[in-house]
Amino acid sequence: MDSLQALGLTRLRSCLLSAVAFSAGIFVTSPVLAADSCPPLLKHSFPSLQDQKPQSLCQWQGKVLLVVNTASYCGFTSQYDGLEKLYARFKERGLVVVGFPSNDFGNQEPGSNKEIAEFCRLTYGVQFPMFAKATVVGRNASPLYLQLTRATGEAPQWNFHKYLIDRSGTRVLSFGSRVRPDDRELLARIDEFLGK
């Protein structure tokens, strides 16, 4: 091989290495870019109910979220069934139901995270994402719930209060505990938000 060919191979290797490094740089920085584009309302992380590993709500940016404070010993606990059916029905279109167990109302969620996870799985077959117990009202409320309250002017008054967040993470609607998951108004708003 003459020196001219060797020089050409060296340049080719250098170009290929630069292209690989450039590509790797794109892949390394893209999660950062994704996090930067996450709406402020979703920039929260919470421990998962099942394994306590932190999960960010940003993983669902671009989806429609139905955020619900739940309890295992409440007159509305049977709504778990409806929430799971709602999630199964609309998840392919982009709906994510997100549960936050809370003991804020009537001490109706006294169990540990493990006990709550088992109850949800065994009693209602819950597959939608659930987070560890949280405070949803008062001075010690989760920052997410403080933002949801500010956005709607309505704080939860009891278990199974629902907040519907649009795909942009900017429009939020509030639905009280008595609004069941199969309520026509709730379904209409979900359909509206999913259609965008």
UniProtKB/TrEMBL annotation:
Superkingdom of origin: Bacteria
CDD domains for this protein: GSH_Peroxidase (cd00340)
Residues annotated as catalytic: 74
GO biological processes: cellular response to oxidative stress
Signal peptide limits: 1-34
Family matches, as SUPFAM superfamilies: Thioredoxin-like (SSF52833)
Domain Thioredoxin: 18-195
Keywords: Oxidoreductase, Peroxidase, Signal
Listed PANTHER family: GLUTATHIONE PEROXIDASE, THIOREDOXIN_GLUTATHIONE PEROXIDASE BTUE
Protein family (similarity comment): Belongs to the glutathione peroxidase family.
The protein's name: Glutathione peroxidase
